[in-house]
TrEMBL record:
Pfam families xref list: DUF1330
Stored InterPro entries: Dimeric_a/b-barrel (IPR011008), DUF1330 (IPR010753)
Biological classification of the source: Bacteria, Pseudomonadati, Acidobacteriota, Terriglobia, Terriglobales
Protein name, per record: Uncharacterized protein (DUF1330 family)
Record-annotated DUF1330 domain positions: 35-120
Keyword check for Signal: yes
Signal peptide limits: 1-19
Alphabetized UniProt keyword annotations: Signal
Source species of the chain: Granulicella aggregans
SUPFAM superfamilies the record matches: Dimeric alpha+beta barrel
Amino acid sequence: MKSNYKFLMAMIAGLLVGAAGKSAMHGEQVKMPPVYVISEAETIADDTAVKNYGTKVQETLVPFKGHYHFVDGDAPPRGIVVIAFESSEQALAWYSSPAYAAIKPIRLAAVKGRMFMVGGFAQ
């Protein structure tokens, strides 16, 4: 009788360990939802400065795996830009990076608008 009890307890313990391991492995596979930085321009005071900023901002995104993002169709209308990042930490690190700080005054001087961060949905 005692051996049956020990066997049953060992089986239950094995099932619990297996379930915990499976749960931990599944947790590693969950992908964090993306984060989007959206820049919206009400008015553009200096088209040349905005083009200059646009050519420079791409370089600042590379170390943070940021990229322009379009869901479907053509590029958005003038004045709206969506940049995708893998996490809010990457987005904030990009925004506060020395490389972006160097060109941020160009945008602030040339564009009246806003920039904000929005969380996405896990795939």
